[in-house]
């Protein structure tokens, strides 16, 4: 197992949606002679879970006889990423397609030098099963001690998870599917749309609770636990307190907008004075 080799155990992989977008983008921009694209996964490791939050493509050449990749490029970009976010480091690599071949072990060994338990993510960009299938693997050692040794790729569970802000953006762009119209970012309309979605979800939850209370469907302890966490996360505030908070926020927003207007006017006056002089 991974514990016997001194490497930290990996029980789950959580993938940020932006990572998948980067992989698809690098696949679409690949050279015509490239069968697949590979790249580095960056993130962090915490208590058996690998959080993949960033990725970038690594140039490589792959033929039936050999494979070569830009190791220096991968190391240099990784160091640059660490300067931007000191809590982020290399946690594995990705490749387009779902096939794992002999070259995958060689590439994996390179990333194992940077992280003891790297994860290998494969993304089916060809949509062979009519969907973009995602697999995550780690390697386990096999062979005889002091003899022939190797490794085998073993799947590990994964989850695609983003922040609430990411989910709002993704849902907005999903609504633009099939249209070429330029989106109109209207804040009041977005707020109304978000409130409508929230009310629809609340109605679904209320319907589920009523069905469980009436004994129509069996209860689920996990769902009940999550509902309890949601209820407890809502702050217990009076309506007057909420109104005062909104008014204070509105005043701050108007002050910033006014200062922005003054700065714009001052820059315009300065530009005209420079033209006259």
Structure report:
The structure is a single chain. The protein has 277 residues and is an alpha/beta fold. Helix content is 46%, strand content 22%. The strands form 2 sheets. Strands 9-8-7-6-2-3-1-10 form an 8-stranded mixed sheet. A hairpin with a 4-residue loop joins strand 4 (60-62) and strand 5. It is extended and about 75 Å long. Mean pLDDT is 82; it is low at 1-5.
Give the key terms.
single chain; 277 residues; alpha/beta; 7 helices; 10 strands; disordered N terminus
Outline of this structure?
The protein has 7 helices and 10 strands.
Strand order of the largest sheet: 9-8-7-6-2-3-1-10
Biggest sheet architecture = 8 strands, mixed
Helix content: 40-55%
Q: Which range does the strand content fall in?
A: 15-25%
Structural class call reads alpha/beta
Order of helices and strands: EHEEEEHEHEEEEHHHH
Radius of gyration: 26 Å
Low-confidence regions: 1-5
Q: Helix count, per DSSP?
A: 7
Distance between the amino and carboxyl termini: 77 Å
Shape summary: extended
- Per DSSP E runs of 2 or more residues, the count of β-strands stands at 10
Mean pLDDT: 82
